[in-house]
Design a protein that fits this description.
The chain is of the alpha+beta class. It has one domain: 2-Layer Sandwich (Beta Polymerase, domain 2), CATH 3.30.460. Helix content is 40%, strand content 19%. The protein has five helices and five strands; from the N terminus they run H-H-E-E-H-E-E-E-H-H. It has a five-stranded mixed sheet with strand order 1-2-5-4-3. It is globular. The chain starts with a helix and ends in a 10-residue tail after the last helix.
């Protein structure tokens, strides 16, 4: 199979074994996730779900998914979330889709936040795609 080791690893996908996170990293992730979920709850986000991606994805350790009912609510949730993360010391966040779309993505480094309108959330079904149930072999 031609290609560099990096390309081969990318094609092979994530490994199935769980990596043990470092205790200090886990505490920081827990603190960041608490800030994120509290901010979303304050903004009346619906159906907030946190998914552990450690050992299953190279782009993040966790994913938080929430639903907003209107474009303005989703944009406000994204703005408030960026402000609260910065206040808590998590300054490097990037936002995509914040100008009136059905889906806003906030990359907070180790945690990715997806803010959806209900129809878009159903269509993309990220919870199903990243569910831990998919990692278990069927008998």
């Amino acid at each position: 199979m031609p290609g560099t080791p990096r390309k081969k690893a990318t094609i092979a996908g994530p490994s199935r074994k769980k990596a043990e996170p470092k205790p200090t990293l886990t505490a920081e992730l827990d603190r960041m996730q608490t800030v994120i979920c509290a901010s979303l709850e304050d903004d009346k986000a619906e159906d907030i779900v946190a998914i552990d991606l450690a050992g299953r994805a190279s782009f993040a350790d966790r994913m938080v998914i929430a639903t907003g009912l209107a474009d303005r609510q989703i944009a406000a949730m994204a703005t408030h979330l960026n402000e609260k993360l910065a206040e808590a010391g998590f300054k490097k966040t990037r936002t995509e889709g914040a100008n009136g779309t059905d889906w806003v993505l906030i990359d907070a480094g180790d945690i990715i936040i997806h803010l959806f309108k209900p129809e878009a959330r159903t269509m993309y079904a990220l919870e199903k795609m990243w569910s831990a149930d998919l990692d278990e072999p069927e008998e």
